[in-house]
């Protein structure tokens, strides 16, 4: 199929989408310069103890699973806009904890875990619900292509910037740069509309819905997506850092070049998501993503990192784009239950990250770090379950294709 600029001429954005995504980009830039180097920082601080680092991140995601329903309950009291605004100081404090690490490592670790969990609890459900409400379903794939292309530009430059700063002046200055950017992230949120939702589940009812048979596709699909994200978060940065013998600038440069090679694919995939069936795109993406994980087992050099990660990136682009569009479509299709769907999805994703990190933390005692790539490949297969229509609330949990609430 031939891709044309004309395919994107009918795509427009509401002011709320632009303001919301501007906030997202600032947060992404602030966290992005630290990015993969945060895991490496903790890896070095704990004397290359991968199981301990895995346990730290697993605790963050487990606490997120526990607290996410409480965060959703606050939406009816404060509104989504105010909750996101309240989350930004905690994002700031998570990086501040790293900056102050040498003063008291134990206290800084507690601050990192606490601040990150509260930020995630207050921010992500309102963000996803707002984006689902503000974006246009008919062109959502192409909207996401354009926005994610801009996001990719940030993603391209931040590893290189981070690696350069660490090489030139160390981690402290890196954290200062990150903190400076995060200070401005709250500003765009003041310009979006305030939205309220009433979370319909009680705390324990949320878990009943999450683990119910009728929501099994949602649970397994997003748990699989979270599991492979957990490997990307923890194992991949440590793996390439060890392979490249601690060269921070090279780690950042290879990461940036790989992402640059994938930038144009955002537009191609976004057009396919809008034109092809969700099932077709998600299935192709999962196939590419799964084989990409398996091929990573054979990486031995820096050049192979670039070639194989670019191939895997192709699968991740197709997979993540289709998952994102599927998620926002599923959310809006749930009407009044849009926040309930989003909460269940976020809990499943964080549960997947928790499980994979605990498994990796144990398996690493007996096998090579590369075994995590095989586990991620298996987990990625579960993402195809998101092809199934999912409706939450009042016995409308599974609806045939084409039927809308």
UniProtKB/TrEMBL annotation:
The lineage of its organism: Bacteria, Candidatus Kaiseribacteriota. The keyword Transmembrane applies. The keyword Membrane applies. The chain crosses the membrane at residues 21-43, 55-76, 83-101, 107-125, 146-168, 174-192, 219-242, 248-269, 281-299, 355-386. This is Major facilitator superfamily (MFS) profile domain-containing protein. Residues 214-405 form the Major facilitator superfamily (MFS) profile domain. Pfam families: MFS_1. It comes from the Bacteria. Keywords: Membrane, Transmembrane, Transmembrane helix.
